[in-house]
Structures are given as C-alpha cells and as structure tokens.
TrEMBL record:
<dbReference type="InterPro" id="IPR045865">
    <property type="entry name" value="ACT-like_dom_sf"/>
</dbReference>
<dbReference type="GO" id="GO:0004664">
    <property type="term" value="F:prephenate dehydratase activity"/>
</dbReference>
<feature type="domain" description="ACT">
    <location>
        <begin position="200"/>
        <end position="278"/>
    </location>
</feature>
<keyword id="KW-0456">Lyase</keyword>
<dbReference type="InterPro" id="IPR001086">
    <property type="entry name" value="Preph_deHydtase"/>
</dbReference>
<feature type="domain" description="Prephenate dehydratase">
    <location>
        <begin position="5"/>
        <end position="185"/>
    </location>
</feature>
<comment type="pathway">
    <text>Amino-acid biosynthesis; L-phenylalanine biosynthesis; phenylpyruvate from prephenate: step 1/1.</text>
</comment>
<dbReference type="InterPro" id="IPR008242">
    <property type="entry name" value="Chor_mutase/pphenate_deHydtase"/>
</dbReference>
<protein>
    <recommendedName>
        <fullName>Prephenate dehydratase</fullName>
        <ecNumber>4.2.1.51</ecNumber>
    </recommendedName>
</protein>
<keyword id="KW-0057">Aromatic amino acid biosynthesis</keyword>
<keyword id="KW-0028">Amino-acid biosynthesis</keyword>
<dbReference type="InterPro" id="IPR018528">
    <property type="entry name" value="Preph_deHydtase_CS"/>
</dbReference>
<dbReference type="InterPro" id="IPR002912">
    <property type="entry name" value="ACT_dom"/>
</dbReference>
<dbReference type="Pfam" id="PF00800">
    <property type="entry name" value="PDT"/>
</dbReference>
<dbReference type="Pfam" id="PF01842">
    <property type="entry name" value="ACT"/>
</dbReference>
<keyword id="KW-0584">Phenylalanine biosynthesis</keyword>
Length: 311
C-alpha cells in the first residue's frame, strides 16, 4: 500500500518539519516539502497530498495569518491533530564575521518577529530580507549568488548546512512554542479522548449590536473554555470580520454539540474545522451542571414530561 503524503513548509530543517517528525516517521509517511503554507493546504484540497502540517499560532507572535485565513476559507479541510514545537533560534553566517559587519539577514517573517529586539540591539546595521522559511533563508547562504550574509534559523538547520553559528538562543522570549495542526480533507472525526479541542470559524454579522456577546454566551452558559479567539478580516471590506475560535472539548460532548447547534441557529455561516486531541493532554474542568451526565438527566426529565403531555 502506498504511504500517505504529508505536505509541509520546506525545505529540510524547518520548524514545520520538526512538527511533522512528531506525527509520522519518514518510514511511514512520504514527506513532501513545499514552498508555502498555502501550497501545502492546496495540495490537500486537490487530493495530491493526504495531509498538510502547518503552523497556526506562536506563543509570542500570535496567529499565523496565512494558515488562519486559508483554512477558514471553505469547508474543504479538517484539523485532525495538533503538535507543539519549542522554538529557539541561532544566527548563522556565510563566514565567521563580527555582528556589526552584517548588513543584511534573512529568515521567515514569523521568525524575525521573534528575534527583532535582539536584532535591534546586536545587528544595528542589518536589513531584514524575508525568506519563505527559516531553513530556506539559511540554505540560501550556500548559494554564492545570495546577497545577504546571515540567517536566523533553528539550531538543527545550522548543523545540517554546516555554516558558522554567530550567536545562539537569540529569541526575545525564552520558552516560546509554536503550535502546528495536521490537516486533511473532511472525513471521520476521531473519538473524544477527554482532552480535546474543537476549532470553529464564525463570521461576525455586521450591523448587529451585541453579536460578539451572543457568540460568547453560547460557550459561557455551557461552561466551555476558549483557548484561542482571534478576529480576522474576511477581505470583503472594512468592518467585515470572522472569528477563529478554539474551544476546550469535543463535538461528541453534549455541551459542545449543544453550543454549536445554538451557534448555527444564530449564525448559519458558522464552520466546523475539527475536534482533535490536545497535544499537551491537559484535562479540563467541566462545571458539574454541563457534564454529559447533567445533560442526559435534564433530557430524561423533559422526555418524561413530554410523555405525560401525550406528544
Ligand atoms: O520557517 C519555518 O521554519 C517554519 O516552520 C515556519 C514558522 C512559522 O510560520 O511560524 C514556524 C515556526 C517559527 O515560529 C517560525 C517560522
């Protein structure tokens, strides 16, 4: 049987590849490096890859907008898993050189955002040259035609390319983590594990006072904690937004399905992007009155009443 194809942001040595390695070994999955998050997701939509591994948020820099916007675009994708990768950066140079001599440095824009204070202090003369990934920036230094002199990348890439490390642990915030998701075409939803997340996209109705409050109310009255909520422009015009929301719980849990059903009644354009296990396996506290058992006993009571009414 052929191995499933995993499209991911390459080339070899990206943080995305580190995430992919947590998902499947190269013996069991076909690693396909591509040039962008959008290409990886497009390959899954087109059926050219079974899975894409893409960054979705960073603990310091926040949401990865290319991913959030693309997966929100239609119901052609489903999140099946999440993976966490600790992030630390080094500075590599084409040759050994003093930091003050560096006039241009390349990396991924999300990586640059995580070292910008360090760079302002230690690379005062350097211009930032955006690369399609941290590994692409570093590997570019191997090409004699490349005009920049240094790159910000993971310690692993530095080792792979064999270039001199000019500075280590240059991230502005120690202990940063990037969260990646594994995405497939819509299909069966995994069983609840007791430590799950559900991702939904909710278009914010325009000209409806209190719409955000109404959305949040569906979760709070059912004791559902939100682990991420971000507003993004739909692109349709100023004032047109959607919310990308991660909530604690699985669609198969009563409080979650009840909240989503209520949300659908309010805003039929709501999109379900998947229920999947939490990477940190942390269990959440469900208030007593919103456990499945509480929902079942409430329903049993109403069913009994309905029996008496003869309907
Ligand atoms: O460039 C890479 O190595 C990536 O995997 C992309 C990416 C991102 O898009 O956030 C992943 C993790 C780091 O936060 C920096 C860059």
């Amino acid at each position: 049987m052929s191995r499933p194809v995993y499209a991911f942001l390459g080339p070899e040595g990206t943080f995305t590849e580190a995430a992919l390695r947590q998902v499947v070994s190269p013996d069991d999955g076909d690693y396909r490096p591509v040039g962008s998050v959008i290409t990886a997701l497009a390959q899954v939509r087109a059926g050219e890859a079974q899975f894409a591994v893409v960054p979705i948020e960073n603990s310091v820099e926040g949401g990865v907008t290319a991913t959030l916007d693309d997966i929100a675009g239609d119901e052609g994708l489903q999140i099946v898993r999440e993976v966490l990768v600790p992030i630390s950066f080094v500075l590599v140079g084409r040759t050994e050189m003093d930091l003050e001599e560096i006039t241009s440095v390349s990396t991924h824009s999300h990586g640059w955002a995580q070292v910008r204070n360090w760079a302002a202090k230690h690379l005062p003369n350097a211009e930032f040259i955006p690369a399609s990934s941290t590994a692409a920036g570093a590997r570019g230094l191997l090409d004699p035609e490349t005009h920049y002199q240094a790159a910000v990348c993971s310690p692993l890439v530095a080792e792979q390319v064999g270039l001199p490390v000019l500075a280590q642990a240059i991230e502005d915030t120690a202990g940063a983590v990037t969260r990646f998701v594994v995405v497939s075409q819509p299909g069966p939803i995994g069983e609840p594990t007791g430590s799950d997340k559900t991702t939904v996209v909710v278009p914010l109705p325009e000209d409806r006072p209190g719409a955000l409050m109404e959305i949040l109310d569906q979760f709070s009255t059912r004791g559902i904690n939100l682990s991420r909520i971000e507003s993004r422009p739909t692109g349709a015009g100023l004032g047109s937004y959607f919310f990308s929301i991660d909530l604690e719980g699985h669609l198969a849990e009563e409080r979650v399905s009840a909240a989503l059903a209520a949300l659908y009644r309010l805003i039929p354009g709501v999109r379900f992007l998947g229920s999947y296990p939490r990477a940190d396996q942390r269990r959440y506290q469900v208030p007593e009155h919103t456990t499945d058992a509480a929902y079942h006993s409430g329903q049993a009571w109403v069913t009994e009443l309905l029996g008496r009414s003869g309907t």
